[in-house]
Amino acid sequence: MTAPHPLIEQLTARQTELDVTTTALFRRTGIACATVYNWRAGRRTPRLQELISAGEALGLRLTWERVEVPVDGWEVEPDEQLPYGELVLDENEKFCSGCGQVRSRRDDFHQDRSKRDGLKSACKYCHKDRREQRARQAGEAAA
């Protein structure tokens, strides 16, 4: 378990300041109480839309500013791609743990109802590559 994100700490402080219960926050946003508790405990990181919804329900607005200083130890150049974090920017995309790319949720992932989001952690292409690799290894072992 890790410390909660600084934005979650700010949301929690604002929620306490306004004396808004987590149940009331759920009624305003539809974000489950358990989800909010997991954010606070550092077990989960919110998706961008959840962060925006929770902030707006508490009278806050998320804004973006260009900074000229390193972000968490990374030098950010204007044309450089930032390293991927846990925060998924689009609800239609998901990070593939196999190939390390952001892919389409609808087209590129097999379903897995045991997972929190209902999708396997690796994309269809990674699963296909693994199957082919196992078949080659089995063929080599049999020979």
Automatic annotation (TrEMBL):
GO terms for molecular function: DNA binding. Signal peptide: none annotated. This is Helix-turn-helix protein. It comes from Thermomonospora umbrina. The lineage of its organism: Bacteria, Bacillati, Actinomycetota, Actinomycetes, Streptosporangiales.
